[in-house]
Amino acid sequence: MYQSLRSRLLLYYLIVMAAILSIFGTGVYVVFRRNLYNQLDKRLLTLAQSATPSFTAVRDRGSKYLNQVEEVPWRDIFNRDQQSLEWFDEKGKLLGRKGLIHLGVEPEVGTKIVQQPKTGEVFRTHTLSVFVRNNGQAGPPSLIGFIRATQSSAEIEAAEEQLFWILVVSGMLTLVLIGLGGFWLTLKAIEPIEASFLQLKQFTADASHELRSPLTAIKASVDIIRNHPERVHSKDVKKLEAIAGATLQMNQTLEDLLFLARADADSDVPVQARKLTPVSLNQILQNCFVLLEPFANDKKIVFQSKFRSEVKILGDPAHLSRLFSNLLENALQYTPEEGRVSLDLYRQNRFAIVSVRDTGIGIAPEQISRVFDRFWRANKARSRREGGTGLGLAISQAIAKRHGGKIIVTSELNIGSCFLVRIPILDTKRSVVTKV
Ligand SMILES: Nc1ncnc2c1ncn2[C@@H]1O[C@H](COP(=O)(O)OP(=O)(O)O)[C@@H](O)[C@H]1O
Ligand SMILES: [Mg+2]
Fold first, then answer.
1. N or C: which end of the chain has fewer CB within 10 A?
2. By the 8 A CB rule, do 183 and 229 touch?
3. Which domain-ending residue is among 128, 152, 176?
4. Alpha-carbon distance 14 to 178, whole Å?
5. Can you tell me which atom of ligand 1 is nearest the CA of 362?
6. Do 125 and 138 contact (CB within 8 A), yes or no?
7. Residues of the chain with pLDDT under 70
8. Does residue 53 sit within a domain?
9. How far from 196 is each of 79, 167, 191, 193, 200, CA to CA, in Å?
């Protein structure tokens, strides 16, 4: 139980951490990427700007000028392997180029992303318009051409990819470390829960034990008085009966609680180590059936049993009787008159299956998981009138677990319920109980 609670805690913890890490990683990636492109765009803008003064010279003297003159400002920042500079006239016709990149597209003012159809390579360009002020004349300056600076995005893409993998790998590593930390953390977190749960169990055991002796005393005294009816005032007879009835019910509840406390105490003992003997399941079921037949007859319930095979298991006969009579009592109790209750036994691989099926009031789907809870009842008022303690199924489940088995419930409201008990069959060859 703690194990599953722990692994669930750890899982939630890891999910939360993974979510935080991926948000963080995505943020870093996006910001970093944007910065890289911003820097590139700025570099291209500066390059284009620094090439502007040379515009008229290139226009007038063509590419030859580009090869001759060394002292132009853009040469200092120009990277001939990765960038290119192009000069266009006002109609977009190429006047000169420096660099190896041939985009083959018309200049467009501003920052543009161009993909070369042949190679698929992506380039970033920045294009400036070049104007001249008309000497002495008023009016707007006139456009004389464009200058375009271009650089491939390949380098940035590589950096981007590298960053991506660094983030993924370091994220994974961090998650592994968080997992290790979480393993320890959940261990610590569970400790107090475990302790308080143990304390609660111990308290239940102690309290029911302590209440036992005074209750026994009350019961003995009531019995003595009831054995001498002549001493009882006629007006008190009913009260005395009420006391006797309440005492009996309290005693039953206490015994049930003590039983569960003991079951809790040895729930850590492995199935193989429990003191169980080979018993015939058919025999036990037959006894339960016979004992409850009169009750079924009183309610005019069709009560049937069918044992399809002879089954032996390792078990405690008294406990097994209790397990099955609890289920049968419930079936009879929660089935209205003229209903039907059937008890079946069959084998399924290495398991004995006992099914208790009724056509009773059923259990609502959202309540099915609660039926094994201690003191839980669907309808408290009615159940008390019918004498239940609400511990019956909790006890049945504890007994089934003690035998390495489990109980599976299916039910439909107003149609009926089915309780399946699955217990490993005694393996006569190896004389051990098969694992569940
Ligand atoms: N066969 C059944 N059909 C319908 N409801 C059932 C059946 N068995 C159990 N229940 C529901 O589960 C509750 C718990 O059962 P149990 O632990 O035996 O307590 P009790 O019978 O003392 O009330 C019952 O109060 C009832 O609401
Ligand atoms: Mg019951």
1. N
2. no
3. 152
4. 7
5. 4
6. no
7. 1, 68-73, 136, 271-272, 381-387, 427-436
8. yes
9. 72, 42, 9, 5, 6
Q: Is 329 in the pocket of ligand 1 (CB under 6 A)?
A: no
What distance in angstroms lies between residue 330's CA and the mean position of ligand 1's atoms? Answer: 6
207 and 326, same structural domain? no
Residue with tokens 């169990």: 201
**CA atoms of 393 and 278, how far apart (whole Å):** 24
> Cα(294) to centroid of ligand 1, in Å?
20
pLDDT at 436: 43
CA distance 228 to 226: 5
pLDDT at 68: 66
197 and 141 inside one domain: no
What is the residue range of 206's domain? 190-265
In this structure, are 316 and 422 located in the same domain?
A: yes
The reply to whether ligand 1 has any atom less than 6 angstroms from the CB of 383 is: yes
Decide: 347 and 307 in contact? Cβ < 8 Å: no
Ligand nearest to the CA of 363: 1
Q: What is the CATH number of the domain that holds 42?
A: 3.30.450
Tokens of 140: 């707007």
Residues in a beta bridge with 152? 123
- Rounded distance between C-alpha atoms, residue 27 and residue 70, angstroms: 44
Strand 142-152 with 426-427, pairing: unpaired
At 435 the pLDDT is 45
Question: In a mutational test of the pocket of ligand 1, which residue from 260, 301, 334, 367 has the highest number of ligand atoms less than 8 Å from its CB?
Answer: 334
- Same domain (yes/no): 54, 22: yes
The SS3 call for residue 413 is coil
Report residue 187 CA to chain centroid gap.
Answer: 18
- Residue with the two structure tokens 């943020």: 27
| Side chain identity at residue 46, one-letter code | T
The answer to whether residues 356 and 324 belong to one domain is: yes
Confirm or reject: Cβ of 334 under 6 Å from ligand 1: yes
